[in-house]
Amino acid sequence: MRKGRLTIYNTLSGNKELFCSINKDFVGMYVCGPTVYNYVHLGNCRTFISFDLAYRYLLHLGYQVRYVRNITDVGHLESDADEGEDKISIKARLEKLEPMEIVQQYTIDFHQVMNAFNALPPNIEPTATGHLIEQIEFIQSILKNGFAYESNGSVYFDVEKYNKAFPYGELSGRKIEDLIANSRALDGQNEKRAPLDFALWKNASAEHIMKWPSPWGIGFPGWHLECSAMSGKYLGETFDIHGGGMDLKFPHHECEIAQGCAATGQKPVNYWMHANMLTLNGKKMSKSAGNSLLPNELFSGENNLLNKGFDPMVVRFFMMQAHYRSTLDFTSDALSAAEKGFKKLMLSLENLAVIVPSDQSTIEVSSLVDSFYDAMDDDFNAPALVANLFEAVKQINAILEGKESLKKEDLALLKDEMCGFVFEVLGLKPILEKSADNRLVGVMDLIMDLRTSARENKDWSTSDKIRDGLLNAGIHVKDEKNGASWK
RNA sequence: GGUCUCGUAGCCAAGUGGUUAGGCACCGGUCUGCAAAACCGUCUACAGCGGUUCGAAUCCGCUCGAGACCUCCA
């Protein structure tokens, strides 16, 4: 346990702040989840992996964390023109399916992908459609406090009125005057009093397929609202950490703050965290721009951008080599580099497991361990942690070569902390080799035996032929001091 | 157009007033029949110009370049 030194960059203040949870030893964390109208792409995954890292480190520090990440299954409009259509409805019509079939299909995909990336599941994964009552009640609170108005069966948030009581634009650093000056005049905004106002509840036309009854008529909830309603329900009126992608800062998170303040009179969140984008060819990865890569394409290598497939753990390690607040550029070359580094780290951990303790230590294990914590305490600086882990790798190699040594307690500490940081905090795990069946093992024993005989007789042409032939079959032969091995 | 962020060696990427980041590649070496793998070593950069400072990649200004948000987005 080493609580009390963690600093988090808070978007609200623009500074790294010492993290102090509302309730000692407990942390409430909410992260905006995906809208399940399509397959999650790699950029989406980066955000969730970034917050998985934060979640894991908080757990590692000994906090009891309630991690809530929603599934948006309604209310996310195609555009903000308010005549925009719900993303899920569009997909449902196109594929001639029930909206909930779309939701189910892509939720399952999302879970499979997150699982492949070894991301821990959240403690609660609420859906918007499962919390309509909470959303309606939330709107009623805002209406009661006078920060919203009803118009033609819809309810809108009154941004200008709110701005007189609370600052609007604090999170994204925007001034309401600038926003008004720059907002576009869109068609179909007759219901709204001002362009900046956003929908809390929208009335539904007859042909609309996803709709529910409400005090204002048949309709559906606004996108910004669900996160306020669900985070409030499970984490309270004010909670510790709210995360999401950088692109949600405005307007989504700004609106969440406004909704929270308008409903309860207090700021809903203490620490706002924003994960940066994954870029492809220097541009933000995004579905709508057609600039995205799907995880399964990456794993299989079936994409023109890739030379080969990559294991999910390699991709995760690749992401851990960049700070969550920096953009990360995706290239096949960068991923290949990460693959080698990842294997080096994993090999070193295997070696660490078999090191024999000595009478004395020539390495200061405690300062190595401190460097791990220092890195992560500094706003979850995973790339610095990785660099420090490679320092440890260097030391482990020196021990293997007999240049350095560790006594029992130090060795145990190093094993404990390295495994803790690599497996629990970074969330990496060894790549499972395809297990060979018994018959192959028997055949390989025979072949390796024959090759060893050939080598003993200096029959290099035979031994090389066996080695090359096996390589073609995808089996690598390694000649080591104590004999050859294969995998 | 407005707001903001970034520009670090061949590539990816930390750092953010003074001390080697790290990974990959390259090159040299150890090992090896040869190779592969592994290990060791080497390479030592901060877009440009100007300013502040004893000292700047780090702070300030300007220029150039890239990106994000302002419209759905993780």
User: Which architecture of the largest domain per CATH?
Assistant: 3-Layer(aba) Sandwich
State which percent range the strand residues make up: 5-15%
Question: Mean pLDDT, nearest integer?
Answer: 90
Biggest sheet, open or closed, and with what strands and sense?
Answer: 4 strands, parallel
Assign a percent range to the helix content.
40-55%
**CATH topology of the largest domain, anyone?**
Rossmann fold
- The value of Rg in angstroms is 27 Å
Strand order of the largest sheet: 4-3-9-10
Fourth-level CATH superfamily of the largest domain: HUPs
Highlighted features:
3 domains, elongated, 14% strand, alpha/beta, Isoleucyl-tRNA Synthetase, Domain 1, RNA-binding, Rossmann fold, 16 helices, four-stranded antiparallel beta sheet, 487 residues
